[in-house]
Amino acid sequence: MAFPGTAPNGQPYSDKSKITAGLLQIFLGGLGIGRFYTGHTGMAIAQLLTCGGLGFWSLIDGILFLTSNDRTDKQGRVLRG
């Protein structure tokens, strides 16, 4: 499914949602699920091994997903939302 428009960086928007990524990160961030969703496997494994930075890293990361407009997926495309 294509999403209209281009992001401020000139690329098309990602097919991934920043709201979904943020909520996954807040509720399942200890397992790195939000990062697996966006394709950032290395960071997801780090979160998995540290239990989301004892919960702090995953909570802050989830909030940043929800409030920031420049979070990207694996291909560098800005998340839609």
UniProtKB/TrEMBL annotation:
PANTHER family listed in its UniProt record: BETA-AMYLOID BINDING PROTEIN-RELATED, TM2 DOMAIN-CONTAINING PROTEIN DDB_G0277895-RELATED
Keywords from the UniProt entry: Membrane, Transmembrane, Transmembrane helix
Transmembrane segments: 21-38, 44-67
Topology term for the membrane: Multi-pass membrane protein
Lineage start: Bacteria, Bacillati, Actinomycetota, Actinomycetes, Kitasatosporales
UniProt KW Amino-acid biosynthesis keyword: no
Protein name: TM2 domain-containing protein
One Pfam family recorded for the sequence: TM2
Claim: Ribosomal protein is one of the keywords in the record: no
Sequence ranges assigned to domain TM2 in this UniProt record: 15-63
Species, as recorded: Streptomyces chitinivorans
Subcellular location, record wording: Membrane
